[in-house]
């Protein structure tokens, strides 16, 4: 697939999920176009400035009119809730896990009073950053998500599981244990048991390779939150596009590498 084909497929899928969204009279982009751009940024990764240069140079003709870079970034922040429309419904069984993301090298800790990330361990080494929590359903789609600083323990993401307390049983690892107890719908699995839940590790490894998500270049709270919202929506949309292109594939199969930018 060419990059233009990928953009068109993503836009069509987003537009189908946002049928009644009206364009503001002073806006250049329709809501589905703005969300598509956010998903493309999450897919390409890197700095937003470089992403904007690439988009404006090569694919501006696909959109109704690109605003200035800073205005576009503010618009993504202002309408972050639109990305929630692309989250999936919970199934009877869901899986929860966390994913550390680096913002700074440890040697730069404390150089700025505005530093947002906190020091934590990632695969045996110290890092300064944030932690993303995903809740996936049995079809590997993101149902809910949250984030906090990297030094946050997994047990503090229990409210993510509680959002589906009426509809789903949530499988988790021992990191989600808490002496005060766990949500009634959460099942903490011993190592080596219920290995079906490991697909969440596969999903997170995909966004590591395809989206370069292991490191974010943002420094402010709102921009980090918007980027992570875009990544969660992107993962669902790309899986839907994949299964539209390959209808005979196993419904549980995950593949987003062919959409890499």
Helices and strands in order, then pairings?
Blueprint (H helix, E strand, L loop, with lengths): L2 H15 L13 H14 L3 H12 L9 H10 L14 E12 L13 E5 L2 E13 L4 E8 L8 H5 L6 E4 L13 E3 L10 H13 L9 H25 L16
Parallel strand pairs: 1-5, 5-6
Antiparallel strand pairs: 1-3, 2-3, 3-4
Helix pairs in contact: 1-2, 1-7, 2-7
Number of strands: 6
Cα-atom radius of gyration: 19 Å
Q: Which percent band covers the strand fraction? A: 15-25%
Instruction: Using the alpha-carbon principal axes, give the shape.
Output: globular
Order of helices and strands: HHHHEEEEHEEHH
* Class by alpha and beta content: alpha/beta
Q: Bin the helical content.
A: 25-40%
Largest sheet: 6 strands, mixed
Flag low-confidence runs: none
In DSSP terms, counting alpha (H) and pi (I) runs of 4 or more, how many helices? Answer: 7
Give the mean pLDDT. 93
Task: Kindly report how far apart the N and C termini lie.
Answer: 11 Å
Textual characterization of the structure:
This protein has helices at residues 3-17, 31-44, 48-59, 69-78, 158-162, 199-211, 221-245, and strands spanning 93-104, 118-122, 125-137, 142-149, 169-172, 186-188. With 261 residues, it is α/β, with parallel strands linked by helices. Strands 1, 2, 3, 4, 5 and 6 form a six-stranded mixed β-sheet that branches. It starts with a helix and ends in a 16-residue tail after the last helix.
């Amino acid at each position: 697939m060419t990059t233009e084909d990928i953009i068109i497929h993503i836009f069509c899928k987003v537009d189908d999920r946002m049928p009644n969204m009206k364009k503001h009279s002073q806006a250049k982009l329709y809501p589905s176009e703005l969300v598509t751009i956010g998903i493309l940024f999450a897919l390409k990764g890197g700095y937003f400035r470089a992403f904007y240069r690439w988009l404006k140079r090569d694919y501006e003709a696909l959109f109704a009119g690109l605003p200035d870079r800073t205005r576009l970034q503010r618009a993504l922040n202002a309408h972050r809730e639109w990305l929630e429309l692309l989250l999936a419904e919970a199934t009877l069984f869901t899986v929860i896990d966390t994913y550390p993301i680096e913002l700074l090298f440890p040697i730069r800790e404390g150089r700025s009073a505005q530093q947002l990330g906190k020091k934590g361990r990632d695969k045996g080494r110290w890092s300064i950053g944030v932690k993303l929590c995903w809740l996936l359903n049995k079809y590997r789609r993101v149902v809910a998500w949250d984030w906090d600083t990297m030094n946050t323990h997994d047990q503090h993401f229990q409210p993510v599981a509680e959002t589906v307390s009426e509809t789903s049983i949530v499988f988790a690892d021992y990191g989600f244990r808490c002496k005060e107890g766990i949500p009634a719908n959460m099942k903490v699995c011993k190592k080596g048991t219920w290995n079906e839940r490991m697909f969440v590790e596969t999903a997170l490894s995909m966004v590591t390779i395809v989206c370069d998500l292991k490191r974010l270049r943002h420094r402010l709270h709102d921009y980090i939150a918007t980027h992570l919202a875009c990544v969660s929506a992107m993962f669902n949309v790309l899986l839907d596009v994949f299964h539209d292109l390959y209808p005979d594939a196993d419904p549980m199969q995950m593949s987003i590498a062919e959409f890499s930018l």
